[in-house]
Design goal:
Elements: H1 3-22, H2 28-54, H3 60-80, H4 101-120, H5 125-151, H6 157-184, H7 187-210, H8 220-238
Length: 239
């Protein structure tokens, strides 16, 4: 297992948490543009790396699992309230000084799922590092939004730091788990598992891209951010 990669996986969540703890205000426009870049990047990695890896031959059962993963992510968002997409408008629904376990748990599952493909792609340098960068980029605003909301509940710095650390280790745990599981499954069997993850990635990336677009039209800045994310992912995949 690439232990440096596991450490780097924690960099995104911890960076987002740090800025959330230190910031007095949030620039929503900048956050949305950063999310758009991350969404474009993640979508490109899914199409350029994960889908070719899993669907090298026709198998409709894998297609079914993509759909299952897609709708599983929708189910998770019933509890996370879309924080993984940078949403920060639900704190009025939460009790002060109480850690919202449902939100933290669902986001942790989301982060764990993101780390799963890395364990399978450890021997594919291009796909592995493309996805690693994509997860790090996406986790910065996701963690920022989570800690910003928890911060508004008047939680202590100790509590916020604990949640940030727990959240940060979830993607590495997903990568380690999939690496272990892959040892006991042949590649084709493991690809069924990966198809499920592709479904979750498709939902995450497309939701980031298309939500908050007025009249379903991208602004020039958002379009540029999305295309920049796609181009960077493509460049890394083709190098």
């Amino acid at each position: 297992m690439n232990y440096l990669a596991l450490i780097l996986l924690m960099f995104g969540p911890l960076t987002g948490a740090y800025f959330a703890l230190k910031s007095a205000s949030v620039n929503q426009k900048t956050l949305k543009l950063f999310l758009s870049f991350a969404g474009g990047y993640l979508l490109a990695v899914t199409f350029l790396n994960l889908i070719p890896e899993v669907f090298s031959s026709y198998n409709h059962y894998k297609g079914i699992l993509v759909l299952v993963g897609f709708f599983f992510q929708i189910f998770l968002e019933r509890f996370s309230e879309g924080i993984e997409h940078g949403h920060m408008h639900l704190h009025h629904k939460l009790k002060k000084q109480v850690v919202p376990v449902g939100i933290v748990l669902s986001l942790s599952i989301h982060s764990y799922t993101e780390g799963i493909p890395l364990g399978a792609l450890i021997d594919n340098d291009k796909s592995f590092y493309s996805l690693l960068i994509g997860i790090i980029i996406h986790e910065i605003p996701a963690s920022f939004a989570l800690i910003t909301i928890l911060k508004s509940l008047n939680l202590s710095v100790k509590q916020l730091s604990f949640v940030a650390i727990v959240y940060a280790i979830m993607s590495p745990m997903g990568a380690i788990s999939s690496n272990i599981i892959e040892m006991y499954l042949n590649q084709d069997s493991f690809n069924y598992f990966m198809a499920f993850v592709i479904g979750t990635f498709l939902h995450i990336s497309t939701t980031i891209l298309f939500e908050n677009s007025e009249h379903h039209i991208f602004s020039k800045q958002k379009l540029f951010s999305v295309l920049a994310g796609v181009c960077v992912a493509a460049a890394i995949s083709l190098i």
